[in-house]
C-alpha cells in the first residue's frame, strides 16, 4: 500500500510520502538506541512535565488534529476532536501515576524487592481506525516508563503519524524519544529483528498478529497483540430496553462501524426479541450517513475502498448461507467509501457473522431462549476481546461475567477503552494488556533484587 493521504469521502489523493530507505531506517534506529541510554535516566518529574505538555497541545490543537484524522480515515469531525481530547486524558493519567505504578515493591522475604526498569526502544505497529488514541495509549506509558518509542503507523494515515511525533517533540521530550517510521509492512520484519529494538506491540488484524507474534518470538522479544473481535451484546428481559437499543445502535456504528469493540453480534432473549428488532432497525435506518465534516452526520465513509469490498462480500456470503437483510446490505452509489447501517438476522451456523469479524456498520441479530443459550452464542466465536451484557438480575449478571470468554465484560454500558482499566483479549483477540497499571508493566524488566547485609553491620559501633 502506498503511503498516502486519500480522502475516503471523495477518493481524492491529497498527499503522498516516500517510504524511508534502509539507510534512513538505520539512522532512526541508531538514534533511538542512543537516546535510550540517556533517556532511561531522566526523572519521573521531567517525563511527567513533558507528558503534561503533550496533553495541553492535544487539547489546544484538537480542531486541527480532528480535521487531519477526518481527512485521512473518514471518522466524523466531532469524534475526531473527541479522540484528541481522550489522548490528552491518557497522557495526564500516566504523567500522574507512572512513578507510583513503577515504584520499588517489597517482596515477602527480608531484604528482597522488585524494581521496574525500561527495556529500550519499543516498536508499535498501529492501525488507522483510532489514529491518535491507539498511538498515545502506547506512547504515554512507554515513555513514562523510560522506554523510547518507534511508531509504524498504518499507511493511510501518514499525516496523523507525523503529527504525533511533532507533538511529542514540541512537548519537550528529547530528540529520538519518539519517532515515526514511514515504512510499508514489508519493512516490519527487519525492524523487529534488529537487536536495537527490544519489544513490539501491534493492534491490527489476526493475520498481522500471527506474523508479528511469530517474528517477535523468533527473536525472543516480548510482544503485546490486540487483534480485534466479534463482540457479543447480550440483552435480557430484565434490562432497560430503551437504553439497550440506543446503546446497541451507538456501539455498532461508532467510528463508522470500524472498532474492534463494536457490538457486532447482538444476542437478544426471545421474550423481547421482536420489539428489540423492530426498534433497532428503525433507529439504524434513521442515522444520517454523509460528509464526515458535517457536525450533523452520524456516520461517515469507511476508511478504504477495500473495506467496502470486504464487507459487501461478507454480507453477500451471509445471505447465500441463509441470513436475511433487514436494512442496508449494499454499498452506496456515488463517490466515497460509503456503506449503510445494515442489520442481518436468521444467522445460520458456520456463516460469516459467526466466524469472522465484520469491520463496518453491519450488525448481526441472534435470538436466545435463555441465559445459557445466550452464553453459548456469545462464546461461539474464535475471538474474545470484549462484551456487553444488559441485565438487572444479579444472578444473571454474575453468570455472564463468569462465563463469557473475553478479556472484558461491561454490564449495562457500552464497551470502551479508557486509561484507568486494562484493555485486551483472549483467544484469537490476542494477548497482553494495554492501559492501567498493567499496560505500563508490559514493557519493563521486572527485576528481582535481594540484599543480604553482613552480619553485625547494621548500625554496629555507631553512637
Automatic annotation (TrEMBL):
The name this protein carries in UniProt is Aldehyde dehydrogenase family protein
The keyword Metal-binding is assigned to this record: no
Output the InterPro entries linked to this UniProt entry.
Answer: Ald_DH/histidinol_DH, Ald_DH_C, Ald_DH_N, Aldehyde_DH_dom, ALDH_GabD1-like, GABD/Sad-like
Aldehyde dehydrogenase domain sequence ranges: 3-449
Is NADP among this UniProt entry's keywords? yes
- Family listed: Belongs to the aldehyde dehydrogenase family.
Source organism per entry reads: Rubrobacter marinus
Q: Which UniProt keywords apply?
A: NADP, Oxidoreductase
Annotated GO molecular function terms are: aldehyde dehydrogenase [NAD(P)+] activity; succinate-semialdehyde dehydrogenase (NAD+) activity
Amino acid at each position: 500500500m502506498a503511503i498516502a493521504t486519500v480522502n475516503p469521502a471523495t477518493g481524492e489523493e491529497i498527499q503522498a510520502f516516500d517510504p524511508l530507505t534502509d539507510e534512513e531506517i538505520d539512522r532512526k534506529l541508531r538514534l533511538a538506541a542512543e537516546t535510550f541510554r540517556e533517556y532511561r535516566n531522566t526523572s519521573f518529574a521531567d517525563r511527567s512535565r513533558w507528558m503534561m505538555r503533550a496533553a495541553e497541545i492535544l487539547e489546544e490543537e484538537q480542531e486541527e488534529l480532528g480535521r487531519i484524522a477526518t481527512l485521512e480515515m473518514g471518522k466524523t469531525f466531532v469524534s475526531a476532536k473527541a479522540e484528541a481530547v481522550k489522548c490528552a486524558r491518557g497522557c495526564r493519567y500516566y504523567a500522574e501515576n507512572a512513578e507510583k505504578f513503577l515504584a520499588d515493591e517489597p517482596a515477602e522475604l527480608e531484604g528482597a524487592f522488585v524494581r521496574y526498569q525500561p527495556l529500550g526502544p519499543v516498536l508499535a505497529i498501529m492501525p488507522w481506525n483510532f489514529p491518535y488514541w491507539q498511538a498515545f495509549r502506547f506512547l504515554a506509558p512507554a515513555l513514562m516508563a523510560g522506554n523510547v518509542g518507534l511508531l509504524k503507523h498504518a499507511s493511510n494515515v501518514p499525516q496523523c503519524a507525523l503529527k504525533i511525533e511533532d507533538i511529542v517533540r514540541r512537548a519537550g521530550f528529547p530528540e529520538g524519544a519518539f519517532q515515526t517510521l514511514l515504512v510499508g509492512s514489508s519493512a516490519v520484519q527487519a525492524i523487529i529483528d534488529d537487536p536495537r529494538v527490544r519489544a513490539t506491540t501491534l493492534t491490527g488484524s489476526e493475520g498481522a498478529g500471527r506474523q508479528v507474534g511469530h517474528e517477535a518470538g523468533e527473536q525472543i522479544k516480548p510482544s503485546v497483540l490486540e487483534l480485534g473481535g466479534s463482540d457479543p451484546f447480550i440483552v435480557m428481559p430484565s434490562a432497560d430496553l430503551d437504553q439497550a437499543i440506543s446503546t446497541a445502535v451507538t456501539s455498532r456504528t461508532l467510528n463508522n462501524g470500524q472498532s474492534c469493540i463494536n457490538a457486532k453480534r447482538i444476542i437478544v432473549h426471545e421474550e423481547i426479541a421482536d420489539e428489540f428488532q423492530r426498534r433497532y432497525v428503525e433507529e439504524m435506518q434513521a442515522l444520517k450517513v454523509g460528509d464526515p465534516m458535517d457536525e450533523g452526520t452520524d456516520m461517515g465513509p469507511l476508511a478504504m475502498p477495500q473495506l467496502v469490498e470486504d464487507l459487501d462480500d461478507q454480507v453477500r456470503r451471509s445471505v447465500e448461507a441463509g441470513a436475511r437483510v433487514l436494512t442496508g446490505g449494499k454499498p452506496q452509489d456515488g463517490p466515497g467509501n460509503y456503506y449503510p447501517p445494515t442489520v442481518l438476522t436468521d444467522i445460520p451456523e458456520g456463516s460469516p457473522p459467526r466466524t469472522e469479524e465484520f469491520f463496518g456498520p453491519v450488525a448481526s441479530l441472534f435470538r436466545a431462549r435463555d441465559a445459557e443459550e445466550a452464553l453459548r452464542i456469545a462464546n461461539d466465536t474464535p475471538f474474545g476481546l470484549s462484551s456487553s451484557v444488559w441485565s438487572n438480575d444479579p444472578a444473571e449478571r454474575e453468570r455472564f461475567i463468569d462465563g463469557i470468554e473475553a478479556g472484558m465484560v461491561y454490564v449495562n454500558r457500552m464497551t470502551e477503552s479508557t486509561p484507568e482499566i486494562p484493555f485486551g483479549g483472549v483467544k484469537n483477540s490476542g494477548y497482553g494488556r494495554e492501559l492501567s497499571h498493567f499496560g505500563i508493566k508490559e514493557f519493563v524488566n521486572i527485576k528481582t533484587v535481594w540484599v543480604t547485609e553482613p552480619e553485625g553491620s547494621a548500625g554496629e559501633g555507631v553512637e
